[in-house]
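Supplementary Note 3. Input sequence used for the single-chain structure prediction.
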Amino acid sequence: MISGVGSSSSYDGSTLSNTALAKAGFSQETFLHLLVTQLKNQDPLNPQDSHEFVAELAQFSSLEQMANMNKSITTVLELSVTNVIGRTVTVLDPQGNTVTGIVDGIVYYADGPAVNVNGTDYPFSSVQNIS
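The predicted structure, written as discrete structure tokens, is reproduced below.
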């Protein structure tokens, strides 16, 4: 642990846990470690311009906000999918043919929700019409 960054801080590294940065091994904690290391190793007679620090923090904050917004949009999509249960939909099958039927249920896969129509799961993105 880097001195000055204790476990009692309000920082929570789980915010970016599902983003591409986290999957690549980067997180808020990584950023904080880099920032503290940069501060420790800078030339005291020629410190880094404060504008550069503000710009770095703003970029990281923007990235975090985009990740949170993406997570929120995904949640809204997943919650809205349940509204199609019992409704008639037209979906495209993998061969490009249209299939019409009543949605029997919703299945959640790692890449997103799917509707179950006539006993077959179709990605929600393949729904062409809801009536």
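Strands lie at 88-92, 98-109, 112-117, 120-123, 127-130. The longest strand covers residues 98-109.
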